[in-house]
Amino acid sequence: MLKVNEIYHSIQGESSKAGLPCVFVRLTYCNLRCTYCDTVYAFYDGKEISEEEIIEKVKNYGCKLVEVTGGEPLVQDETLELMKRLCDEGFDVMLETGGSLPVKDVDKRVKIIMDLKCPSSGMEKKNLYGNINYLKNTDELKFVIGNREDYDWTKLKIEEYDLFNKCEILFSVVFNELEPLTLVNWILEDKLDVRFQIQMHKYIWHPETNGV
Prior knowledge:
This protein has a single domain (about 1-205), classed as Aldolase class I (TIM Barrel), CATH 3.20.20.70. The chain starts with a strand and ends in an 8-residue tail after the last helix. The radius of gyration is 16 Å and the shape is globular. Helix content is about 25%, strand content about 25%. The protein contains five helices and nine strands; from the N terminus they run βββαβαβββαβαβα. It has helices spanning about 50-60, 80-90, 150-160, 180-190, 200-205, and strands spanning about 1-10, 20-25, 45-50, 65-70, 90-95, 110-115, 140-145, 170-175, 195.
């Protein structure tokens, strides 16, 4: 059994899969409290659902791409088995994780999208840098940047951990805190080989809409 906040069909708003139809399985609970969190409603709200029922609900949408997200999905130990079973059922599975809990036991078929929390998140000290050793070159590492300090910190981490040789790097802005154009200009000025992204769903629907 897992505690699930919501299961819904939408489009991928972020990552290299942005724009593709996707089924989201949003699990309850999070061990972090980022200053810019937009899913506070997933901290505690949800109901207990069996793996079988979750998989059946996912199948009903007729969509191959599935993202397991939260909250922080790795808080619940059963998440690892759920992702394995989704892979066994032939789904393309993605995991969105905050980077503070171990990813070493995640099924290798799962595409991991992992944050490293920048200083403005207030959760920088929670980063589990050992996770970098378990990322595949098909995984993605995301930095949500709120100001110039975050940006400069991110460049240092990329160099310190040789991240360009690990996996694809994603840069996002903290919504309504840093102008996308500002971050784009910094990236271009420094000739960084990163993927800039916006939270596409916040521009399609109202930014505070849940279940999209």
